[in-house]
Every structure is written in structure tokens, then in C-alpha cells.
Design a protein that fits this description.
The protein is mostly helical. The chain is 39% helix and 7% strand. The structure holds zinc ion (2 copies). One zinc ion binds next to loops.
């Protein structure tokens, strides 16, 4: 319960000013007495932060995709496998020569 420090009038708990004499109560007037303004600012700031975060994430993703593209490029731009037996050019990654059937990897038999 709040009482006016000046005139002693009983005031509602959330009264910041005495309804009889206008004296400010001991309750500090909260900074968010205009909540919509603050909320608007908060949302604006939040929006900026989210936008920043999304932009950063987008750039990171682009970078990641770029790396993946480069990796794929490396793989596909590999020299074709030349058969050591018949000299045939086989597509990169071929396991066996498409001309003579030789095991192009050779190492494991
Ligand atoms: Zn008063
Ligand atoms: Zn061959």
C-alpha cells in the first residue's frame, strides 16, 4: 500500500503521483512508462541484430558453398585415367579400362 508522503492520502500501489496533491510518490517512475516506445526500439534493434546475423550466416553459407564447389571442381577436373595397358583415356574415377578391362587402380589387384 502506498501513501502520499506529503498529505498522507492512500494511493493505489502503482500510483506515481498523489491524486490529491500531485506529490510524486516514493515509487520511482519507471523508465518504461512509455512501454510501446521502448518495445519499438527493442524490436528495431532486434531486427537489426537478426538482419546482421542473417547476413553473416548468409556470407558464411556462401563461403561454404564456394568451398564445396571448389572441391567438386577439383574432383571433376582430375586428369582422365590413362590405361597403362592400352593407352586408352578413361573418364576420371574409372575403376577399369573401358577398352581392355584392365584394373586402372591396380594397387589392390
Ligand atoms: Zn498528497
Ligand atoms: Zn586399357
Amino acid at each position: 500500500m502506498t501513501f502520499c508522503a506529503n498529505c498522507g492520502k492512500k494511493l493505489p500501489e502503482k500510483a506515481y503521483f498523489c491524486s490529491r496533491c500531485g506529490m510524486q510518490t516514493e515509487e520511482d517512475v519507471p523508465a518504461d512508462i512509455t512501454p510501446w516506445e521502448d518495445l519499438r526500439h527493442a524490436f528495431t534493434k532486434m531486427g537489426e541484430e537478426i538482419e546482421k546475423a542473417l547476413t553473416t550466416a548468409g556470407k558464411e553459407m556462401e563461403k561454404a558453398f564456394e568451398t564445396v564447389r571448389e572441391r567438386i571442381g577439383e574432383t571433376t577436373s582430375k586428369q582422365p585415367d590413362v590405361c597403362s595397358s592400352c593407352g586408352e583415356n578413361n573418364p576420371a574415377g574409372s575403376r577399369f579400362c573401358h577398352s581392355c578391362g584392365k584394373d586402372l587402380r591396380g594397387r589392390d589387384g
